[in-house]
Amino acid sequence: MSTGSPRQLWLLPVLLITVIATALGGLLARDLYSEPVTPPPATVVATSPSPGPPEEQPGPADVRGTADAVVHPLYHTLRKLLQTYFNAVNAKDYAQWSSAVTYERQTNQPEQKWRDEYASTKDGNIVMHRVEARGDGTARVLLTFTSTQAVTDAPQELPEPCIHWNVVWAFSTEDGEWKLAAGPASATPQHEACG
User: Rounded to whole angstroms, how far apart are CA atoms 67 and 56?
Assistant: First the structure.
């Protein structure tokens, strides 16, 4: 009875070791590439923070997001844009503000008009609640924030030194970059006096 040639005897263990090594390599690669995504940054808030006492208004100027907003693919891009926008308002920096908005919005709010309207404004307690993107290069953000201002710089319909805003702001791409746009959603905010 023949047990096979010596060449055939060593081929089977080598083939078996190769198959086992390949399977183990595949399992290791799967584990390596299926690491959980890093948790959202520290800018996540559960809900809108409760306003502090009047002397602490408008609150922190950093733009934060709820868990719902943070998971949206556009969150970081639009958050950075909003941070530029609010930093510009707080610093009274029209050039910086202009870099965050569309050309149409700049045209509707030339520098002197902008300076007159935001002369005493400070914004804070800024929270992105929801981000909705559309396939046509536009998006909307549900946003809340608090502003403080001289009563003379407040909206005519709400002449108050401190206002809580609940807005839906429009965004669009212009020259390949996201910008805060003019639009009906941005033009009709809901707001109420602090207190």
Answer: 25
Three-point CA angle 156, 102, 94, nearest 5°: 65
Q: What is the mean pLDDT of residues 12-27?
A: 61
Other CB atoms closer than 10 Å to residue 169's CB: what's the count?
A: 21
Chain position carrying tokens 């970059």: 177
Work out the widest C-alpha separation in the chain, in whole angstroms.
Answer: 108
Q: What is the DSSP string of 92-126?
A: T-HHHHHHHB-HHHHHHS-HHHHHHHTTT-EEEEE
pTM for the model stands at 0.74
CA-nearest of 115, 109, 127 to 169 is 127
- pLDDT reading at 47 higher than 60: no
The structure tokens listed for 43 are 């800018």
Question: In sequence order, what are the residues at sequence separation of 6 or more whose Cβ sits closer than 8 angstroms to the Cβ of residue 118?
Answer: 89, 92, 153
**How far apart are alpha carbons 116 and 187 in whole angstroms?**
18
Residue 137 contacts by C-beta under 8 Å, 6 or more apart in sequence?
A: 172, 173
CATH architecture of 44-193: Roll (3.10)
